[in-house]
């Protein structure tokens, strides 16, 4: 009996029932157990519904988020030189030549 009420932290309610036990009998005890059980089931159901709603919203946006992250990754690797570290100087010289030629042609 006490262990059931410790689950909900309602030890004061149990004291109230014990004081009025002669008047109400088992009816109050059974009604209180039914109320706490229904309230717990409703709260768990609400929690499951909220998780489901959050999952559905994220699932709908997942494709857009994946495409954005994929684009960011590809654009990052396109801006990096394609040669390894010792040979990267060749790419830098090539970019410098292309830059000077493009500014010279525009003038």
Automatic annotation (TrEMBL):
Transmembrane segment boundaries: 26-51, 83-105
Keywords, alphabetical: Membrane, Transmembrane, Transmembrane helix
An example molecular function term from Gene Ontology annotations: ligand-gated calcium channel activity
GO cellular component, one term: plasma membrane
Family annotation (InterPro entries): TRPM
Record has Transmembrane as a keyword: yes
Protein's recorded name: Uncharacterized protein
Organism: Rotaria sordida
């Amino acid at each position: 009996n006490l262990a059931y009420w410790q689950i909900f932290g309602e030890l004061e309610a149990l004291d109230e029932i014990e004081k009025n036990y002669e008047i109400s009998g088992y009816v109050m005890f059974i009604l209180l157990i039914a109320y706490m059980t229904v309230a717990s089931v409703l709260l768990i159901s609400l929690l499951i519904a909220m998780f489901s709603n959050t999952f559905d919203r994220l699932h709908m946006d997942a494709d857009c988020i994946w495409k954005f992250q994929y684009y960011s990754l590809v654009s990052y690797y396109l801006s990096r030189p394609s040669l390894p570290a010792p040979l990267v100087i060749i790419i830098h010289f090539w970019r410098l030549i292309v830059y000077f030629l493009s500014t010279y042609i525009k003038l």
